[in-house]
Amino acid sequence: MDFRYELQNILSATGQSTAGNLIQTAAHYLKQGQKTGKSIEAVRLTKDEEAAKLIEMAQTENHWIEHIDESRFIARGAEQRVYLDIDARFVIKLNDAVFYLSWSDYFLSLQIHNLFFPGTAYMLIGFYL
């Protein structure tokens, strides 16, 4: 694997969304929603505008998580709540991305983490309000 090529694709957001990879799909969807300014450069959406786009995508593509079992709660961090998955092999993290200026930055961070640390890769399974 050529890490430079993969990292360049992630950072430039030129890679296409991959079937089954909701992190890439969401990042690509937000990239498509960017506005064009007076100059050639795209104007980034605000975090609230991105949230609205993600809600739109979740509704259109049926990516909602309907229920979180509160009895499976195991920990709380500064930006996430952690639950043990039903089969106890995985954890579910509800993240509000409070430390990120945008949801795009959050998805970028997840993609870079997954590139360099595939043994502890994140998988986005849906959205929860």
Strand and helix order: HHEEHEEEH
State the secondary-structure class: alpha+beta
Estimate the global geometry from the Cα principal axes. globular
Termini Cα gap: 37 Å
Helix content: 25-40%
Spans of at least 5 consecutive residues with low confidence: none
Overall pLDDT level: 86
Radius of gyration using CA atoms only = 16 Å
Please, could you describe this protein's structure?
With 129 residues, the protein is an alpha+beta fold. It has a domain at 3-66 and 101-120. It is 39% helix and 14% strand. The chain is built from four helices and five strands, in the order ααββαβββα. The strands form two sheets. It has a three-stranded antiparallel β-sheet, with no helix packed on it. A hairpin with a 6-residue loop joins β4 and β5 (91-95). α1 runs antiparallel to α4 and α2 (22-32) runs antiparallel to α4 (103-116). The longest helix is centred in the middle third of the chain and has 15 residues, at 47-61. The N and C termini lie far apart (37 Å).
